[in-house]
Design a protein that fits this description.
It is built from 15 helices and 8 strands. Strands 1-2-3 form a 3-stranded parallel sheet. A 3-stranded antiparallel sheet has the order 6-7-8, covered by helices on one side. It has a two-stranded parallel sheet with strand order 4-5. The two termini are 40 Å apart. Helix 4 (90-100) packs parallel to helix 13. It has helices at residues 20-32, 47-53, 57-73, 90-100, 105-109, 112-123, 134-148, 162-178, 220-228, 247-255, 258-269, 274-301, 303-333, 391-404, 420-441, and strands at residues 6-13, 39-46, 82-85, 154-156, 188-190, 360-365, 371-377, 380-384. The chain is mainly alpha-helical. It is 50% helix and 10% strand. It binds tryptophan. Tryptophan (TRP) binds at residues 9-11, 13, 46, 49, 143, 146-147, 155, 157, 161.
């Protein structure tokens, strides 16, 4: 019996060149969180999303390369986590359409990014949708497909993305409702309150849009120059300095241990000169970044290696999850093989229609005296229960599965090598068959 690991999914928009703020705010914490037992991690380059903002092909390509190389150089191991490029998984696009057809347009009207664009237009006395592409409007649906296709449980995001996760839950829930069962796990946003935003060169939040960034892998001398250009006040060496509101101190803190940070605080109080403090900051950052920079430069020099890693990740992931999932979803919505239509009585025992026959719950007693059940589709066991003392307990658990569908709490029942989506689809077929029987009983009126 296997317990389905928790799935944690992280999307990385491929725009711009990664900077120190991306590193301390996103890359470093995300990679620190990988490798825990019972967790399956998904990291992907959201290159389809990037087209909404950037329509410069050379920049799109360059940024995808740099961001892929950055994550690899920072320690992402493509053998232990899923690492792929969104556009290499066409099933994401296909699911986007299925979700588009259940997504409420009114919900999309309320998306922050879209609403902000409309508000700006109104202020300028323009038409509401002036300059707004359908891509910007549909952004949350594509993002929901990214998440739902792999039934991710947790999605670590910044505050600004929480609404998108809520929308993914909403679209997933609507789809589950319309198509009868828990086809999708509803994801949860995880916002890390610990991670402070890094100030940039001018003291405001480090951000591409302020032009105040320090590229993570700037060559050593460029890094040094940039660090020496961080704003400070005009206090002379020997004068005590304030750590509060000091960009220099905050950036140092993001790289230093607690002890190193305390020492720097003391140095500020003792009147360290700004030049000396900047040199110390440079040394501290470079100590952490230099080994990764070396890997980064090696990787960037061989883009075909990165291309191969990404393609391989997507190929394996499609085989393992995306293709079978879309097969089930197509089936669920009725995009079906016409030759497999069951024209009458689904339980007629037609051997050519095994796939269409509903799965079965089987209850039994083992030699250990305990009561068990399993859910099987033909010869394939999908769910395997633990032993219960009482047959009633087994019966109740089955009733709950039939009534509420398969949820995260049922993960422990999954048989070896079975994906939750498969069980969800099987339970949906069972519910469909039950409903058909009930209609028949009620006099054949649908
Ligand atoms: N919108 C996210 C951002 O701007 C990137 C992203 C795209 C994403 N698809 C995702 C994040 C799916 C999490 C899950 O940061």
């Amino acid at each position: 019996m296997s317990v389905r690991p928790q799935r944690i999914l992280t999307g990385i928009t491929t725009s711009g060149t990664p900077h120190l703020g991306n590193y301390t705010g996103a890359i470093r914490p995300a990679l620190a969180a990988t490798g825990s037992a019972g967790v399956e991690n998904f990291y992907f380059l959201a290159d389809l999303h990037s087209l909404i903002k950037s329509q410069d092909p050379a920049m799109t390509q360059r940024s995808t390369l740099e961001i892929a190389a950055t994550w690899l150089a920072c320690g992402l191991d493509p053998d232990t986590v899923w690492f792929y490029r969104q556009s290499d998984v066409p099933e994401i696009n296909e699911l986007t359409w299925l979700l588009t057809c259940v997504a409420g347009k009114g919900i999309l009207n309320r998306a922050h990014a879209y609403k902000a664009a409309v508000d700006r237009n109104r202020e300028d006395g323009q038409d509401d949708d002036a300059g707004v592409t359908a891509g910007l409007f549909m952004y949350p649906v594509l993002m929901a497909a990214d998440i739902l296709i792999f039934n991710a449980d947790k999605v670590p995001v910044g505050r600004d993305q929480v609404q998108h996760i809520e929308m993914a839950r909403d679209f997933g829930q609507r789809f589950n409702h319309v198509y009868g069962r828990d086809h999708f796990v509803l994801p949860e946003a995880v916002v890390d309150e610990q991670v402070a935003t890094l100030p940039g060169l001018d003291g405001r939040k480090m951000s591409k849009s302020y032009g105040n960034t320090i590229p993570l892998f700037a060559p050593q001398d460029a890094l040094r120059k940039l660090i020496f250009s961080i704003v400070t006040d005009s206090r002379a060496p020997g004068q005590a300095k304030d750590t509060d509101g000091s960009a220099l101190f905050q950036i140092h803190q993001a790289f230093a241990s607690a002890d190193e940070s305390a020492a720097m605080r003391q140095a500020f109080a003792d009147g360290i000169g700004w030049g000396e403090a900047k040199q110390a900051l440079f040394d501290r950052i470079d100590a952490e970044v230099a080994p990764m920079r070396e890997t980064y430069e090696m990787l960037i020099a061989k883009p075909e290696g990165i291309e191969a890693v990404l393609r391989d990740g997507a190929r394996r992931l499609r085989e393992r999850y995306a293709i079978p999932t879309l097969e089930r979803l197509r089936e669920a919505v009725g995009l079906r093989d016409l030759s497999k239509v069951v024209l009458a009585m689904p339980d007629a025992g037609d051997a050519t229609n095994v796939e269409a026959a509903p799965p079965l719950f089987k209850q039994y007693r083992e030699a250990d005296g305990r009561f068990y059940f399993k859910l099987a589709q033909g010869d394939r066991v999908l769910l395997q229960s633990p032993g219960f003392e009482q047959p009633r307990e087994a019966g109740q658990r089955i009733a709950a599965l039939r009534r509420d569908g398969f949820g995260v709490a049922d993960a422990g029942l999954l048989a070896e090598g079975v994906d939750a989506a498969e069980v969800i689809a099987a339970l949906a077929r069972l519910a469909e068959a039950d409903a058909a029987k009930a209609r028949e009983k009620a006099g054949g009126v649908a």
